[in-house]
Amino acid sequence: xxxxxxxxxxxxxxxxxxxxxxxxxxxxxxxxxxxxxxxxxxxxxxxxxxxxxxxxxxxxxxxxxxxxxxxxxxxxxxxxxxxxxxxxxxxxxxxxxxxxxxxxxxxxxxxxxxxxxxxxxxxxxxxxxxxxxxxxxxxxxxxxxxxxxxxxxxxxxxxxxxxxxxxxxxxxxxxxxxxxxxxxxxxxxxxxxxxxxxxxxxxxxxxxxxxxxxxxxxxxxxxxxxxxxxxxxx
Length: 234
Hints:
Layout: H1 9-15, E1 16-17, H2 41-49, H3 51-64, E2 68-69, E3 76-80, E4 89-96, H4 102-106, H5 109-128, H6 132-136, E5 142-150, E6 164-172, H7 173-180, H8 186-192, E7 194-199, E8 202-206, H9 216-219
Parallel strand pairs: 4-5
Antiparallel strand pairs: 1-3, 2-4, 3-4, 5-6, 6-7, 7-8
């Protein structure tokens, strides 16, 4: 996986209470926000209790989804800034590497966001709750999935940086539980989630997405990619 500049500081500051100064790294273990960098005792306790589950999550993404990239310190129990109190959402951020296509570039921003939501949010919720102890912990108030991808036609140059589009998806615990139990489809999940959009550093506000069920993550196989010895992907 290549070392790309990931989520902008403006996006992170807009949607999550989090420490500053995290950057891209390769080892999957470095994807976890250190216990001491969680900003409240509730967050630190969750990080201590579920350390093994978070490491398994990071390793699963690293090995089984090699076309996405996570950032150092991006998996942890963050506080969504739009919520009151010490609500703690298990959060992760992904940069999605994909080949540019004119068809995708021609879509409205809401439709590009809906495509990314449909491909990744459901599968990431399943990965984030695969550990039974973590999935059943009532102190985990919900889940955040932040997705970022290159805005086509903005690869940048020596004097300019590329522009990335992003969505930050917040799913409360009850909604996630109902979705994972098969009680709703992705369309309803998108309606009940809170989705913020960003065009580079520019906040687009809350997006209403018409999402759908997509099996891309389960079926996509990168060309010539070989799993490490002893690794299996569910």
